């Protein structure tokens, strides 16, 4: 027996060939079965999803068989792709949603093709002048920011071109003073998310490269990072307009990315840096959980400044919740949830309602005085509250979900209250006047769409899909031009700007696509989104034990196959 195994692989090879034939026949049979169910109604959806799961399992088994034969020195070409008609039927939950997804995908193709034609390799596209601009030091921000959007939408050809650019042209050795925050959420976040989706190590290697260049920003006496750093030389500082202080959101919105990187590289240094920030802030965390937007990086003390859930404060509170979710809500990350719940008591103290329509809004606070002003950026809050609501008991859960729905209605009316049905940057609320736009530009922001996505996922209420569709139609009517998408300098007059923000493709269009996709696409019990809409896999964390590298050896086959074959 030993001699047979050492001299010839013919017996196991014959067995594997027979098995391969049977599996392939089964694969073809299931494919044709799914294909034949294109016209099924919603009553048959469970059966379609079951067949989809069987198809995915067969594809994974085929992949294992091909790997085995490859190890034996054989090369057998088999197609594991599903035909286009089958793609349409797999997971087709609703004809209207399917059609709307296709419209959003068309918008993504238009935006991406315009970027490829006029600004390839540069950070962002200026559509009206048909040229690119390096707003982030020449890191190809639109490419890196949009990798996972292309992947999730199944735009394979575009994704492969973007992947080749990352592998061969993306260079971080730039004598450029980068924003630690923006580079983390867009570039590091985009690379890590795409690695989690694709298992392609080129993205992880690039992620580690940029993270290593950002890491010296945390070398301060308090551990609170500087907010700017030279990518080539590692010199870090804060901008002059902050008076030497670090900004709350810029300093407290790197936890998800750096924790994820430590887990995937088995190197704890990244996680330690960002968790030291939370330890420092927790040491003197106020009873209402609200922090001013300026923090001294030398002492860790907060400086007198505004308290806000809008610009410069927003994502700090978001990441307290999401770091808890990222760790799978275990005891090891319980302190994140506790800090977040404390901060929500502070948020509730800032809620006011207008007359005559009773729109709920989140005030800003300066000292003891409240300002009746709310940024569109703060429209992430309804989604955050909805996401957290089902981890409360029944009574509290209903209260937080009700508040989320009230705030979402206000944010939706930020759009509906202007002539173009596009939201301004921020709003004031005056007695008897409900809301009035203050800063009147619109730069294609995603926050309201993000909250509608979460509310639809949590409640199943199709109203949120309708609101999202109305906003998308306003973008199509007013922001789409022949060479891409543009924002507006004034939502009252319709004067256009000359910028297609990378987050329009990375966040706004991604959340719109997911708003019309089944919940099985990036399920919220398996993935957590960073503040730039980049999904990371949830990894359970335990006390005194970190799962460093746990994902580095896992290929997310089922999800990858679902995304590639489930939606055309």
From TrEMBL:
Q: Where does Ca(2+) bind?
A: 531
What biological-process terms (Gene Ontology) are attached?
carbohydrate metabolic process; N-glycan processing
Catalytically driven reaction(s)? N(4)-(alpha-D-Man-(1->2)-alpha-D-Man-(1->2)-alpha-D-Man-(1->3)-[alpha-D-Man-(1->2)-alpha-D-Man-(1->3)-[alpha-D-Man-(1->2)-alpha-D-Man-(1->6)]-alpha-D-Man-(1->6)]-beta-D-Man-(1->4)-beta-D-GlcNAc-(1->4)-beta-D-GlcNAc)-L-asparaginyl-[protein] (N-glucan mannose isomer 9A1,2,3B1,2,3) + 4 H2O = N(4)-(alpha-D-Man-(1->3)-[alpha-D-Man-(1->3)-[alpha-D-Man-(1->6)]-alpha-D-Man-(1->6)]-beta-D-Man-(1->4)-beta-D-GlcNAc-(1->4)-beta-D-GlcNAc)-L-asparaginyl-[protein] (N-glucan mannose isomer 5A1,2) + 4 beta-D-mannose; N(4)-(alpha-D-Man-(1->2)-alpha-D-Man-(1->2)-alpha-D-Man-(1->3)-[alpha-D-Man-(1->3)-[alpha-D-Man-(1->2)-alpha-D-Man-(1->6)]-alpha-D-Man-(1->6)]-beta-D-Man-(1->4)-beta-D-GlcNAc-(1->4)-beta-D-GlcNAc)-L-asparaginyl-[protein] (N-glucan mannose isomer 8A1,2,3B1,3) + 3 H2O = N(4)-(alpha-D-Man-(1->3)-[alpha-D-Man-(1->3)-[alpha-D-Man-(1->6)]-alpha-D-Man-(1->6)]-beta-D-Man-(1->4)-beta-D-GlcNAc-(1->4)-beta-D-GlcNAc)-L-asparaginyl-[protein] (N-glucan mannose isomer 5A1,2) + 3 beta-D-mannose
Q: Name one Pfam family in it.
A: Glyco_hydro_47
Signal peptide range? none
Organism, by scientific name, is Vitis rotundifolia
Keyword Translocase found: no
Q: Cystine bridges: which residues? A: 379-411
Q: What is its EC number?
A: 3.2.1.-
> Which molecular function terms from Gene Ontology are attached?
calcium ion binding; mannosyl-oligosaccharide 1,2-alpha-mannosidase activity
Per UniProt, subcellular location reads as: Endomembrane system; Golgi apparatus membrane
The protein's name is alpha-1,2-Mannosidase
Role description: Class I alpha-mannosidase essential for early N-glycan processing. Progressively trims alpha-1,2-linked mannose residues. Produces Man(5)GlcNAc(2) from Man(8)GlcNAc(2), but only Man(6)GlcNAc(2) from Man(9)GlcNAc(2). Has difficulty acting on the terminal mannose of the b-branch. Involved in root development and cell wall biosynthesis.
Q: How would you describe this protein's topology in the membrane?
A: Single-pass type II membrane protein; Single-pass membrane protein
């Amino acid at each position: 027996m030993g001699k047979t195994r050492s001299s010839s692989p013919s017996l196991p090879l014959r067995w594997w060939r027979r098995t391969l034939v049977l599996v392939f026949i089964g694969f073809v049979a299931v494919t044709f079965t799914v294909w034949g169910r294109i016209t099924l109604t919603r009553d048959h959806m469970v059966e379609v999803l079951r067949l989809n799961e069987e198809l995915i399992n067969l594809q994974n088994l085929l992949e294992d068989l091909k790997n085995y034969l490859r190890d034996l020195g054989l090369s057998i070409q088999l197609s594991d792709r599903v035909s286009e008609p089958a793609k349409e039927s797999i997971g087709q939950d609703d004809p209207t949603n399917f059609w709307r997804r296709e419209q959003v995908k068309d918008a993504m193709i238009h935006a991406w093709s315009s970027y490829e034609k006029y600004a390839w390799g540069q950070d962002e596209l200026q559509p009206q002048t048909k040229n690119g601009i390096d707003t982030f030091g020449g890191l190809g921000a639109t490419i890196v920011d949009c990798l996972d959007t292309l992947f999730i939408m199944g735009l394979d050809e575009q994704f492969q071109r973007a992947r080749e650019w990352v592998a061969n042209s993306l260079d971080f050795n730039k004598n450029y003073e980068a924003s630690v925050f923006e580079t983390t959420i867009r570039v590091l976040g985009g690379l890590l998310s795409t690695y989690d989706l694709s298992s392609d190590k080129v993205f992880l290697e690039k992620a580690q490269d940029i993270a290593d260049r950002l890491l010296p920003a945390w070398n301060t006496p308090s551990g609170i990072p500087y907010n700017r750093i030279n990518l080539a030389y590692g010199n870090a500082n804060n901008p002059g307009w902050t008076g030497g202080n670090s900004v709350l959101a810029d300093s407290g919105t790197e936890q998800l990315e750096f924790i994820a990187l430590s887990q995937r590289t088995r190197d704890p240094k990244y996680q330690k840096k960002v968790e030291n920030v939370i330890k420092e802030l927790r040491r003197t965390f106020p009873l209402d959980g609200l922090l001013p937007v300026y923090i001294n990086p030398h002492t860790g003390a907060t400086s007198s400044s505004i308290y806000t859930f809008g610009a410069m404060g927003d994502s700090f509170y978001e990441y307290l919740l999401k770091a808890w979710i990222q760790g799978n809500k275990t005891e090891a990350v319980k302190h994140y949830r506790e800090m977040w719940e404390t901060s929500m008591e502070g948020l509730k103290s800032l809620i006011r309602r207008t007359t005559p329509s009773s729109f709920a809004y989140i005030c800003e606070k300066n000292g003891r005085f409240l300002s009746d002003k709310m940024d569109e950026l703060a429209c992430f809050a309804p989604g955050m509250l909805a996401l957290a609501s089902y981890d409360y008991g029944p009574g509290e859960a209903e209260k937080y979900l009700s508040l989320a729905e009230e705030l979402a209605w206000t944010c939706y009316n930020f759009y509906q209250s202007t002539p173009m049905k596009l939201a301004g940057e921020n709003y004031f609320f005056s007695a008897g006047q409900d809301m009035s736009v203050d800063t009147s530009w619109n730069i294609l922001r995603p926050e309201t769409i993000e909250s509608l996505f979460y509310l639809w996922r949590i409640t199943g209420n199709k109203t949120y899909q309708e609101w999202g569709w109305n906003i998308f139609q306003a973008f199509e009517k007013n922001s789409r031009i022949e060479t891409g998408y543009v924002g507006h300098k004034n939502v009252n007059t319709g004067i256009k700007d000359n910028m297609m923000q990378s987050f329009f493709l990375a966040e706004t269009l991604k959340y719109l696509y997911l708003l019309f996709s089944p919940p099985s696409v990036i399920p919220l019990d398996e993935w957590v989104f960073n503040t730039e809409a980049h999904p990371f896999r949830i990894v359970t964390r335990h006390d005194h034990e970190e799962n460093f590298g746990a994902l580095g050896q896992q290929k997310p086959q089922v999800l990858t196959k679902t995304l590639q074959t489930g939606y055309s």
